[in-house]
Amino acid sequence: MKFMDEYRDAALTRRLAETLARATTRPWTIMEVCGGQTHAIVKFGLDQLLPPGLELVHGPGCPVCVTPIELMDKALEIAARPEAIFCSFGDMLRVPGTEQDLLTVKARGGDVRIVYSPLDAVKLARENPMREVVFFAVGFETTAPANAMAVAQARTFGLKHFSLLVSHALVPPAMESILASPANRVQGFLAAGHVCTVMGFTEYEPLARRYRVPIVVTGFEPLDILQGVLLCVQQLEAGRAEVENPYARAVRREGNTPAQQLIREVFRVVPRKWRGVGEIPRSGLGLSETYAEFDAEQRFGVAGVRAEESSECISGLILQGIRKPHECPAFGTRCTPEHPLGATMVSSEGACAAYHRYRRAQATHP
Ligand code: SF4
Predict the structure, then answer these.
(1) Residue 1: what pLDDT?
(2) For ligand 1, what atom is nearest to the CA of residue 352?
(3) I need a labelling partner for 153 at 20 to 30 A (CA). Which of 120, 195, 322, 324 fits?
(4) Are 132 and 163 in contact (CB under 8 A)?
(5) Residue 142 CB–ligand 1 contact under 6 Å
């Protein structure tokens, strides 16, 4: 197939769903890791095409959703400083910190700007030599190369007034944390195709072996996702646990090695808190010693900020596949996209946002 429309072909989708139904003889629970896949699943109603007993649960692959609340508080503190131009992707503006969000800081006079690339923030720094320009570097392995490039570029330009507030998370350690939990229900994974585009999929092979779990590298179109589910089910039914890559049009086994090299040069692996989940060892990226001078936490003295998460939001359970958005008592009532209690309700990759947008009636009246 050459064109995107072909990956949404209704007749092919139906045929694939029929093949899946024939292949499924027992109940299975499969997690799609990426929030982009969650949105595609809910938007196209793919979960409603599955045979009885085959369940898709939503994973931790939404970078906005897993940004810890204390990092949001650090962002809010920096953004309120008069000397700062605080740059962020638009998704982050509505994410609640302990008491407010970036939109509120902006309304109160903070210089918060939406950018579409970290290189836009570097450009802003070149245009504003008298201000401190900070980029909120949120994301998984997918966005790490561009953020690394921004820091490298800032150094090349000699920009002493540019820094990153780093909130990078790594996906395989989060998958391992889910598998190692006593509450785990996940028997197979659809791995996030775009993460694998950068990192390849060798990191998943020890996971598949150690936890006896099939992992299928999966894209984002309806046929990609259904094919990923089918391959996962075929493995489960046959008692196999391997890494498969049907998304070969975008992913190679070794990934994008120059991008990985850039990530290794600018960042180092660190323990990281995941919102609603807690700390996961070796699951984040921080700036390497070589680039430590670009660390906004140190520059603005906010490294020690601590915060407690709301006890009402169950997004941590949703991101681990333990609960679904409509099982949250606040869904659609005390928590809406206009007044979110958690990031999963406002992120464009958030599971609660997907249910609210595409399946609100069903979700609120199950
Ligand atoms: S509906 Fe709101 S409060 Fe409930 S889990 Fe989702 S984001 Fe959190």
Answers:
(1) 58
(2) 6
(3) 195
(4) yes
(5) no
